[in-house]
Amino acid sequence: MKKRTVFVCQNCGFQSPKWLGRCSQCGDWNTMVEELEEESELTLPEGGGEPVLYHEIKEAPGQRMPVGIEQFNNVLGGGLVLGSVVLIGGEPGIGKSTLLLQVSRDLASQGGPVLYVSGEESLEQIKLRGDRLGLKDETVYLLAEVSLERIIRAADQMKPKALVIDSVQTIFSSQLTSSPGTISQVREVANQVFRLAKRNQIPVFLIGHITKEGSLAGPKSLEHMVDVVLLFEGERDHHHRVLRVLKNRFGPVSELAIFEMSQSGLRAIENPSAFFLRERPRNEPGSVVVSTIKGSRPLLVEIQALVSSTLFSGNPRRMSIGLDHYRVSMLLALVEKKIGYSFAGEDIYLNVAGGLAVGEPAADLGVVLAVISSIKNLPLPREIAVFGEVGLSGEVRSVGQPVARIKEARSLGFEAVLLPEGNLQQLPGEELKGIKCLGVDSIRKTLSLIF
Ligand code: TYD
Ligand code: MG
Q1: Cα separation values, 142 from 15, 45, 119, 196, 199, Å
Q2: What is the pLDDT of residues 93-111, one digit of tens each?
Q3: Are residues 10 and 180 in contact, defined by beta-carbon separation less than 8 angstroms?
């Protein structure tokens, strides 16, 4: 039987019966590739099809298998659910293979075997990495293979405790004529792997390369097919990596874990706040410690500002790394208007030390203070941490989770916290002994209190 072909946009998955130079859905050029039309098959679950009364459903939430790294477990919402497919995306070189070989080792040491399939590297290459990670006699099986059918067969025969596929873009099904990495191939791989996971009730990790733009390598269409989507990111020049959850059918999407790339693999950082503050300068103007919430936990980061006169006439520069550009512009305008500084002849640089990104408005107060501290050339007291949202009238507004933020500052030895007056009103006094809480309701008041 001759199958029909369609043209599929490799960027967004849009389908068209004829070739187009420019995708009419996402507007990208030269992305339409001819592919075999997918047969829509309706697979009815066995014994299903009958409506069931809600309270008669007994099925317990899926059984979980803990991974060795505690922080990774938290990210997954308490371990790997048997029969689930976890997609982990990241840029090349970020450490995906390293992380999953470590996870394979840990899972195997709880009673293997674990099957690690690589379509990218030879067995010898993987072994070299394994040596660095200290793999010894754990029952980790390696398979260098790109054929989906052969991988499925091997997994069905071996019945491993867990399966890793590195990477989804290198594997292809011979059912399709398109090349590996195309949307239809990637979808087919995910589809088959999904069935394998359910059939054998094992967790499967799919590694995916992501493009610079941050989409999970063209196949955005893969995200809805898997149970969990994780993102492994970080700056190549920094040693730390952040593992985040984009989707989790079995847990929260707020958790994150921070790792450090070392000589012997990835090491989970137990105290991220201390890690990000470890090189904080002493008594330097323009440096402010902000108590922010990352995922569901508090994290202290240092926000740095540098204000210096624009050398040549022309537009002064505004640069911010790790902060929202629009928010920073708004805050700078506010400082000009409300406090009466003029930034017309000043370059302003803002940076979150350590390369983290801080998106929440609770960092506003820190940004404002860092800028003003730099202009005045006066350092903030070293033992103070701050948080608070700043509104357009210069008012300091309450933010969520004040207690967690204060406790984090206290646990790192800070003596005082500067926080929104509104938050101060609701604090449980008893719990927060040992740290001074200073409430402020406006930028003006903050400045008179600090400088
Ligand atoms: P890798 O896991 O191959 O990245 P990915 O699979 O995401 O492409 O590792 C990337 C980098 O990590 C590589 O440049 C070497 C470095 N690395 C270490 O610094 N320490 C280690 O123990 C290992 C295994 C790798
Ligand atoms: Mg790799």
Answers
A1: 37, 33, 11, 18, 21
A2: 899 999 999 999 999 998 8
A3: no
261, 262, 266, 267: residue to mutate for ligand 1 pocket, most atoms within 8 A of CB: 261
CATH, domain range 275-450: 3.30.230.10
**What predicted TM-score, i.e. pTM, was given to this entire model?**
0.79
Query: What's residue 347's pLDDT?
Result: 94
Least confident stretch, 154-158, 291-295, 422-426? 291-295
Q: Does domain 65-270 have CATH number 3.90.850.10?
A: no
pLDDT of amino acid 163: 97
- What Cα–Cα distance (Å) separates residue 194 from each residue in 85, 188, 197, 309, 425? 6, 10, 5, 58, 51
CA of 322 to the centre of ligand 2 (A): 26
Atom of ligand 1 nearest to the CA of 94: 7
Q: Which ligand is nearest to the CA of 167?
A: 2
| Strand pairing class (162-166; 204-209) | parallel
State the Cα–Cα distance between residues 334 and 363, nearest whole angstrom.
15
DSSP β-ladder status, 85-90 and 204-209: parallel
* CA 131 / ligand 1 centre spacing (Å): 13
Quote the ligand 2 centre to 92 CA distance (angstroms).
7
Pocket of ligand 1 (CB under 6 A): 90, 92-98, 129, 132-133, 261, 263-265
Using a 10 angstrom Cβ sphere, with 0-12 exposed, 13-18 middle and 19 or more buried, the burial of residue 272 is: buried
Say how many Å lie between the CA of residue 111 and the centre of ligand 1.
26
